[in-house]
Each structure stands twice: as C-alpha cells, then as structure tokens.
Amino acid sequence: MIRKSGLTKDFYKPKEVGTMIGRGPRTVSNMVRAGKLEAIRSDTNRILIPRDSVAKLLEQSGLLLEDEDTRRDAIYARVSSHEQKNRGDLERQVLDIMNACEKEGLDKPVIIRDTGSGLNTKRKGLIRLIKMAKNHDIKRIFITSKDRLTRFGYEYLEELFAMAGVELTALQEKENKDLQEELVNDMMSLLASFSGKLYQIRGNKKKKMREIIDSVPEEDRE
Q: What's the mean per-residue pLDDT of the chain?
C-alpha cells in the first residue's frame, strides 16, 4: 500500500511506478502508449507520469491508502501602505473574515498578512499562500474581497488554487470607499511606472542618435 502523502514528486518514471504496482517499467510504458495512463514527454523524450495519474492508478489497483485530511484553512489580508496597517485596517480584515465564518467555523486557520500594492505579484504573503496550496497544506482560502488577493488576474489565481484542490472564497463583491481610493493610488503608481519606462526608452533613443551623429566626421556632415 502507498500512502497518498508519500507521493511527494510532481512526476515519476515508469520504473518508479512499476515498483509501486509490482510490475516492470515496460508494462507501465505500454500502459502509457495504450492511453491507459496519462503521461508527458520530457525534452529528451522520456516518459514522465504526473503525480495525479500515479495516484489514480494506485487507487484503481487498490494500492492507494488515503490520508486523513490535515489541511488547514487560510485567511489572507492585505493593505497597500503601512499607514493603513498602523490604523488597524489589516487586523480589521482578519476580524471581518473570522466573524463571517463563525457559523461554519474555521479549521485551524493560518493568518497571512501582506503590506503592498495589489499590482505587486512578488508579495511575500501571496508567494507563501501559493506554496502552501502547492504543498497541500491548506484547503480553503478566505479573503474579504477579490482585490485583496490581486488587482488583475484574479481568475488565474482562482484556477491555480482550484488545481491544487483549494477553495477560494471572497466574502464581499463590492469595494468600499477606502478600497476605491487605494485602487486609484495603484493605478497612479502603474501610470508612473509606464511613464518612467517610456521616458527611459526615449532617452536611450536620443542618446543613440547623438552617438551616431558624433561618430560621423565633421566634413561628412556638410
């Protein structure tokens, strides 16, 4: 019997899968070719079998031992500035979520807090949340509203978490006045960033043109 928690690799070789089910690697390779086992090909054309496919095969063979679900719930809260954090907006989000989930209950919730723009995809808390989902450490994520997780591309993150078996719940659909003001600030930051890059590109073009002109001998310019 193989415990599901023991399947820690993203992909397995036919030999590894064969050992699990008591068959040879050739048998596993034949199953792949016959379409009975999902697999992919590596850059060197080797067969690699995803963890989910291995788990499904073990389950069909009666060799998979399900683990007790030890995953936890997660609360994610974010503010854009330290000023908002200092006035208690971050903790208010956490409290709002805990109050909203009081009836159904939260399962050993881990609280993740972030301070930074919703346009920043490298927030420490967000990266930690994604890693926990990938490692099957959490089963549900609660946020006050979609923009707390990200300003753009919420659907992609929702799909990413769903693929990891994690349910994502936004408690509010509409932003309040403070969040709308925060969105304006984010958009201003985005415009400033684009303007700075555009100015830099124009500056580089002018510099290049000046270098070309300076490289031409003076008698050739007349």
A: 84
